[in-house]
Structure formats: C-alpha cells, structure tokens
Amino acid sequence: MVPDISTGGRTYGLLAYLYGPGRRDEHIDPHLVTAWVPELAPDPGRDGAATLKQLADALDLPVLAVPEARRPARHVWHCPVRTAPGDRYLTDTEWSEVARRIIHAAGIAEYGDDKACRWVAVRHADDHIHIVATLKREDGRSPRRHQDGIRAQAECRKIEKEWGLQILNKGDGTAAQRPTSAERAKAERTGRPEPARETLREHVRQALAGAADEAEFFHRLTEAGLRLEVRCAPSGDALGYKVALPGDRNRTGQPIWFSGSRLAPDLSLPQICRRLQGGVSEDSLSSTEDFADRPAHARRASVNAVEQAVTKIADQDDASGAAHLVGVGVVLDAVAQTASTSSREELTKAARAFERATRSHIRAEHADHRALRAAARGITQAGNALGKGEDGGTTAMLLSTLVLAAIAATRWHSARGHAQQAAAARQAAEHLRAAYRSAAATTMSAMRNHGRQLSTPQRDRYAQAIKDVLPEHADSVRRGPGWEALAATLDQAEKAGHHPEDLLRQAIERRELATADSVPDVLVWRLRHIADLPATPAQAPTLAPRMTPPEPSHLVDAPIRSTTSQYLDTDNPRRPGHRH
C-alpha cells in the first residue's frame, strides 16, 4: 500500500480531475467513500443535485475564513493511496478506514479533533483512493504535518500487516524524491516518456560518472544538452548548481529548474564535491586516455576494480562497503551510457535501480573507491561498445562481475535491515542478467562451435580431467548445455600452456559448486579468468608452454564470490580473462 503525498493550489481543479473520466477514460464510478463529516460533504458522483463547486467550496471554507495574508500558497493536500498489484480489492468501507487512519497519522485530522482540517476520500478505481484535504483547520491554525509522508508510510505498513496485504519495504528517508502527480501529468501531456526530474537525475549521474573534477562535471552536463546555472561566491567558488531540460518551461515561459539536491540527496554540489575530493590518481587518468576508442580494453580493465569492490562489500567495514557500493553505481552509470543498442535499455534500468542501493544512512568514505571512479572514467572515455566480438565478450565479462556486485549489495543491505536498498539491488541484478545474456550470446556461440569441432579423443580427455577433479559433477557437466563451451575453454587453456587438471583444481578451490545452477557455466568463466584467455575464443593464440600462475590473493573468495552462475541463469560464461 503506497501513499504519495503532494500539495497544490487549486481545490476545484483537483476535484475535477478525480471526478472526471481520466486521461484515458480509466476513472470508473467516481464517488466519495468518506469525508471529515460525511453529511456536510456533497458527492457529485452519487448525488445528481451536488456539484464540484459545492464540494470545493465546502473544503475551502476554513482557508477562505482566514485573512488572505495567512492563507498558504499551496493549500491543497493530496494523497493517493494504492494497494500493491496482486492484493485483493478493498471495499468502500475498508477504504474509508484506510483514509481515516492515514489522515490521522499524517496530522491532518486526528481522531476526536473537531477543529481539524476538512478532507474527503474519492474512489474512482478498484485499487486506490485519493485523499484531498485543505490545510487550514476550523480554528484557523495550520495542521502539524511534519514528516507526514513518513508517518503515512508507517501507518500503511500496519494496515498491510493487519489486513493480510503485501507488506512493502519500509523507507528510511534516503530515497530520491519521486515525481509529483503534476510532473507525471505534464510528461504525459507533452509526450515525454518520463517526468523531467527523472531524465535530469539520470543525466547528472552519468555526467558525474566520467568526471575527474568539478569543472569537468559541469562541462559534461552542458555536453549532454542540459541548461545549467552555477551559483558562485564572490571568490568565484561554486556554491550550487541547477539544471533544466531544453524546452521545459512553466506557464510564464521560464525554464523549470531542478537543483541537485531536489534530484537526489547525493547529487547536491557539496555531496558531489565530497565524492570528487579523493580525486583520481595521475596514473589512473593517464591510463584512461589509453582506452580512447577502445571500449573492449576499458571494460576488461574495469573488471578487477569491480571484483575488488565485491570483496570490500563482503567485508564487515560498513563505511568501506558503503563507499564501494557508490563506486559500483558509478561504473554501472558509465556502462549504461556507453552500452550497445541491444543491451542499453536493460542497463539503463539496472543503473536506475542500483542508484537506490547506493544510498543509506551509513556514511561512505569516498576516497576508498578511486579505482572504481577511474574505471568509470575509462569506460566513458572509450565510448560506445559495438556489442560484437571482443567488445561483446568483454562487456559480458564486466556485466557478469556487476551481477556479482549486485548480489553482494543485496546481501550487504539485507544484513543491515535496508529493505528498500536490498530490493533495488535485486532488481538491478535482474536487469543485469538480461543485459549479460544479450552481450554474451556471440561469445558463447563461438565457444560452443569451437567445442563441437574438437576431436573425440580431445573431448574424452577433458571429460576425464573433470571426472578426476570433480567426480560428483562429471555426469551432469557432460550432459549440460554448457559442455561444449567448457571443453573449448579447456582446449584454449591447454594450448596457452596450462595443465587442465591443475586449472580445474584452482577453479574449484575458489568455492564449492553445490549452489550453482550450471556447473559448466561457472567453470567456463573461472577457467577463462585464471588462464587469462581473451574474451573472444577465436582470438586465443597458441603460446609457448608456461606454468599456471598462482591465484591473486584478492580473488580468494568470501562465500559470495562464486555464486555468479546461480544468478545469470544462462549458459553464458562468467568472466573471461584477458591478455595485456
């Protein structure tokens, strides 16, 4: 059950919408379910003699009774309340109780207060009502509605539990402000796919993802086509900024500006400066220039930073974990804005969902994630991925690691009781899986073709190696759809000078395989990573024999690290390695 509070200045206009047909004739049988005093509230929906003006005048009477100078500019309090998809439909009597409980919790009209504000609850659909109140009490005072949204949310959680409805996640005050009803209506009226607030938030986050300092951040905002105004002190130092979409104007023709803090709590200029304060090392800055027009190299170089972040997130240090969640979000913003057409939509959704998982009340030490910021900068400097060959393979490699990071974020937030953030991380993981499947399709197809072309003795030799090292999974591996890709990976690794059995043992030592949905998938990615194989199988060279290198210490797992295949749900490989 979701309440969504906003304020406005036109009682009649809101009532006309609620009692009207809706934008697509979706309003059915609009009527009052309850009111401050039902006998005093005319219902234009059920009483043919009642008019909207009569109802608006009755609601506005306490506001008009006070001197004009004391009237609030936005005197209309509006709170739609909607049940979750799948919940049963409530009766009018039940909605009446919901309205009274919410209006009491929000401080608009508390139980037993005969001088409270006037209000009504209108129903014009099966799954929600609209509560409308005017913000002057009968005694001329204003209601005490401090944190009315939080209190209304808390009351909804109680109702859900008592009535057996879906219990939604509790908020913690760190979420970005949602678009208002007016903003959503304007987007629909003007043909925009979403409210301006959401578009601007995404542009600002993407500009921040590739910026090394404040000046570059502002430059990237203007490059993205946004209107920008920076408020400066007499010294010339920036104190704040605001952005607007070109063509988005109010009734007087002025641009509709949004400051960073109105877009999200972490997008105010002080917060952005704090994030940029740690800087990006000169080495990192120079290395990102090497990635210009080379998206495959930039993505491949980013994998280690994300893997190390997963380890940090799994640690017990809250501040470090929070910082690395922010860093992973920065990388995901960079990947989304440079994605190929085939995966851009899913990656944009993933970045937007994960954005909620980057904010909590735990203070992040932003200097800890300079490597992730450098990785994001490299990705944006390199530009768009083509989605084919090495680019597609390295994108899949990075996305598979980002899936692991999203799962780590889910567990991190769940362990700390951050319900909304954990749900957002889970949602991001779902979108990342979909993007991963698209990016990895070409690479996996090439691996399977390679595996099918191996001779029977070769395939039998690799099957025996699996049986020797992993006897309990040998049969299922041979029968699974990922067998050809695994055989191809072992063949490439052997040609590169690795011993298949030793390589398999290293892969297995990373973590147990009992929880994997597809053991071949897990092994393919682990082997390609350990053996340092290129992302595209066709590019694997035959090298002089060499010893299998020891596994880097930072890749020795916390339990979370090798569960990727559980969540990818595909026969795509987890993470190919690379050769510098």
Q: Given the helix and strand composition, which structural class is it?
A: alpha+beta
Regions with pLDDT < 50 over 5+ consecutive residues? Answer: 539-580
Regarding quaternary structure, what we see is single chain
The major beta sheet can be summarized as: 6 strands, antiparallel
Instruction: Quote the distance from N terminus to C terminus.
Output: 53 Å
According to DSSP, the number of beta strands is 9
Helical stretch tally = 22
Cα Rg: 29 Å
Question: Could you walk me through the main structural features you see in this protein, from its secondary elements to its overall organization?
Answer:
By secondary structure, this protein is of the alpha+beta class. The chain folds into three domains: 2-163, BirA Bifunctional Protein, domain 2, CATH 3.30.930; 194-273, no CATH class; 282-568, no CATH class. The protein has helices at residues 11-19, 52-64, 92-105, 148-163, 181-190, 196-209, 214-223, 260-263, 269-277, 282-289, 295-314, 318-337, 341-357, 370-382, 389-415, 419-452, 456-469, 474-479, 483-495, 500-510, 519-530, 564-568, and strands at residues 2-3, 6-8, 31-35, 76-82, 117-123, 128-137, 227-232, 238-244, 258-259. The strands form two sheets. Strands 1, 2, 3, 4, 5 and 6 form a six-stranded antiparallel β-sheet that branches. A three-stranded antiparallel β-sheet has the order 7-8-9. Helix 13 (341-357) runs antiparallel to helix 16. The chain is elongated, with a radius of gyration of 29 Å. The two termini are 53 Å apart. The relative contact order is 0.07.
